[in-house]
Design goal:
about 15% strand, about 45% helix, eight-stranded mixed sheet, globular, alpha/beta, Rossmann fold
Length: about 270
C-alpha cells in the first residue's frame, strides 16, 4: 500500500494505492471516508490496481483556507468529480473503473459526463442517477438547517441508523455507533456544502443512456436512500447493465454484507480486460 497526497490550491487530496492491474477508483459517500471500504480493500486489491481516496473535506483530505473561502461556498458534485480527475492525472492513468457509494455514485456519474473517455466501467453502489425530488430537496434544506444549529454528530446520531437494514441494526448496534462517533471529525460547513451539492445535482439518466461502458447497480431492498424500485428502473437504461440485489440490506452493503459485496464488485471488475 502507498499513501499519497496531491496538493491543490483548494485542498490536499489524500488517497491510497493497492495492488496492480486494471485501475479501479473506489469513492465513499456522504459522512464517510475511505475507511468505509475497509471490508473490500484487501479482497479487491488482489484483483486490480485499487485507488481509494478521501474526498476533499473528508478523512485525511483537508480543505485549505483558500478553498474554504473560494471553493467550498460554490461546491457542486462536479467540483468533486474534477478533484478525482486530479488522481488519474497524478497516477498517469488514461481511464479507470469508477465505483461509488451513494454520494460517491453521484460523483461517478458527474465524472462520466465530464470525462466519458476516462471511464472503463461505472458502478453505482446504493446510489441513483435521479436528481432530488421536490420533497427530497425540502428534506435536504431541513438537514442543512439542523446541521447549522446542531452540528454533524447530532445529525448522524439521528439519521445514520436509518441507513441500515433491520437485521444489522438489531445485531450490530456497536458498529453503527462507531460510525456515528467517527462523524465528529467532520466540519459542519463541509457537511452543509456536500448537502447543498447533492440537493442541486441534476438528473444523470442521460449518462446511463449514452454509456458505451458497462454499468453496475448494487441495491438493497431495505434501502430508504436509494430505493430498490428506483434502481431497478435505472438498470434497464444502459446498453450493458448489471443489477445485483443483496437481500436483507439497506444502504450500507459494504458493512452489512461484505462478502456478497466483494463478490459482486470483483465479478464486475473482471468484465474489463
Amino acid at each position: 500500500m502507498q499513501e499519497k497526497q496531491i496538493n491543490h490550491p483548494h485542498y490536499q487530496l489524500s488517497y491510497c494505492v493497492y495492488g496492480k492491474g486494471t485501475p479501479v477508483l473506489l469513492l465513499h459517500g456522504y459522512g464517510e471516508d475511505s475507511q468505509i471500504w475497509n471490508n473490500q480493500i484487501e479482497y479487491l486489491s488482489t484483483h486490480c490496481l485499487l485507488i481509494v481516496p478521501d474526498l476533499p473535506g473528508s478523512g485525511k483530505s483537508s480543505i485549505t483556507a483558500k478553498g474554504k473561502e473560494e471553493w467550498l461556498p460554490n461546491l457542486r458534485i462536479e467540483s468533486l468529480a474534477h478533484s478525482m480527475n486530479e488522481i488519474l492525472i497524478a497516477e498517469n492513468l488514461a481511464a479507470c473503473i469508477l465505483l461509488g457509494h451513494s454520494m460517491g455514485g453521484y460523483i461517478s456519474l458527474a465524472f462520466a459526463e465530464l470525462y466519458p473517455s476516462k471511464i472503463l466501467a461505472l458502478g453505482l453502489v446504493h446510489s441513483t442517477a435521479y436528481a432530488d425530488s421536490d420533497e427530497k430537496k425540502i428534506t435536504r434544506q431541513k438537514s442543512i438547517q439542523f446541521l447549522e444549529e446542531n452540528g454533524g454528530h447530532s445529525f448522524f446520531k439521528a439519521s445514520m441508523p436509518n441507513l441500515f437494514g433491520k437485521k444489522f441494526k438489531e445485531t450490530q448496534a456497536a458498529a453503527i455507533e462507531e460510525l456515528i462517533e467517527q462523524s465528529k471529525a467532520f466540519d459542519t460547513p463541509i457537511l452543509v456544502a456536500y448537502t447543498r451539492a447533492m440537493m442541486l445535482r441534476t438528473n444523470k439518466t442521460a449518462v446511463l443512456q449514452l454509456a458505451l461502458f458497462p454499468v453496475l447497480f448494487v441495491a438493497g431492498p431495505e434501502d430508504i436512500a436509494a430505493p430498490l424500485t428506483d434502481v431497478q428502473a435505472q438498470a434497464t437504461v444502459p446498453i450493458k447493465s448489471y443489477l445485483e440485489i443483496i437481500e436483507g440490506v439497506g444502504h450500507m452493503g459494504m458493512l452489512e454484507a461484505p462478502q456478497q459485496m466483494n463478490q459482486h464488485l470483483s465479478r464486475f471488475i473482471h468484465l474489463i480486460p
